[in-house]
Every structure is written in structure tokens, then in C-alpha cells.
Amino acid sequence: MRILALILLSLSLSACSILDTLSEATTGLSDYIFGEDNAEPPAELTELQAEIQIEQLWKESVGDGPGSRLLKLMPGITDSAVIAGSSEGVIKAFNAHNGDAIWEADTELKLSAGPGISERSVVFASSQADVIALNPNSGSVNWKVKVSSEVLSVPVIAKGLVIIRSTDGRIVALDEIDGHKVWSFERGVPALSLRGTGMSVVEDDMLISGFDNGKLLALRLKDGKQIWESSIAMPQGRSEVERLVDLDADPVISDGIVYIASYQGGISAALARTGEVTWRNSNISVYSALHLDRRYIYL
Description:
With about 300 residues, the chain is mainly beta. The protein contains one helix and 23 strands.
């Protein structure tokens, strides 16, 4: 009987202990869910005070804007004029000092990218794969040609060539004088990619471009032959969305270094002459432009 009593007492104490533990856990969980918030409160919002006051000199319009569409239309600057185009096809040139109209041209195209500007050309591209070059002084049309697909990258003009990047992964070099094709380069596009393409940049005799598969390539400017290829971002994950690593941000070159950013693949610096990656920060995801000064990169 004594042994039986000890066993029953032991079981009773164990049960009480278990119940006490469950009670504490339940109380703690209840306090966590329903109790008072003990997190640090957020900082109060304050109005940002501009360090430099900007004075508006003039303001003019070239259209209603692209709406929800992602287009690469932006102002282009010459020595004396600001040139801009609308998605409805209207291109206007304004006096850079006072905004007075210099010329206006209606291309009747669905413009999607531009302008690329040189001393003798203003180049825009369209959603219907048109490329049009105008005279920067008068707005008259120099030439108009078709490329393989929609263009969402600002045309680049260098050494008598107009470089066009289309959304199907192709780069084509057109003669700046009459628009005939000088050379073309093609790289496959993944089954799923972000809408948009990064602008090519020129370094000496090379054309450097980033692609939707995370590769950075350098081509010989005069004939389009590949010089080097570098892996900037490696696709990771199971789904197609997780594996997106588009290099849609326009690369920037400074002192022989190419700075390029990837969507979900970080930002990297590579040597322009060889493509060798000198550093990489994988914790940043970028899909639009980046800029730099002497000390910092802004993105």
C-alpha cells in the first residue's frame, strides 16, 4: 500500500508539473499574441530639408507621358538645346537657356526609347521596331529603318555607328549616315525576364552590354566580334521568377572599371579590358539606373 501511495503521489506531482508548464507556455503565447506591443516604436516622420534650393528656369511639355508602360524616353542635351520625345511620336527641341521652341517633328511612331545624340544625329526607336534618325538642328528626318523587335534601350552613337539593343537579345550596329546595317550580334533571352534592356556603353574600341541571363559581354565596336564574357549574376532558385537575374540597369564606366547591377543578383565591378570581376555585393537587387561620383555608387 505504501509503494502504491508513493507511485500515485509521484504521478500526481508530474501531472501538476506538466500542467504548470503548459499553463506558462499558454500564458506566454497569449501575451505574445494579445498582449501589449513591446517593440521599439518607429521614428517620427520628419520633413526632408533640401541642402540646395533648385530654381526652375522654364518648363515645357512634349506629351502626356508613357502612363504605366516602361519606356526609356528621356531628355537629351546638346550644346544649346534640350531634345525630348513622347510616346505618341512627337519630338521637340527647346532652347536650353529659356525653353523657347526650336523645332518640332511628328514621326507618327510609338516611340519607346531615346534620344541618342551626336553632332549630326538625334536617334529614337519605337515599340514597333522602328529606328529613326533626325537632324539635331532642324528636326528633318535623315533616315528610318526597321530592326528585329521592340527597342527599350536608349540608342548609343559612337564612331559613326548607331547601336540598337532590342528586346529579343540582339544588338545591331547601323551606319550613322544612311542607317544601313553594319553588323549584328545575338544572345538568347531566358523564357522569363523583366521588361526592359540595359543601355550599351562604349569604352575605347569596345561595346559593353549586360544581358538577361546575367552575362556581361564586350564586343569589338567596328565589327561586333566578342572580346570577352563575364558571369555577373548566377540564376538561383527553383522557379523561373526566383531565377531572374536580368542586367537591366545601364552599366557605368569610370577609370577602366565597369559597374553593373543585376535584378536579384547583386552589383559588381569588372575590369573593362578583360571582364574580370574585382568585387561583388550580392545583397542588392537593382532593375533601373545607377550613378556614381568619385566616392559612392547610387542606386
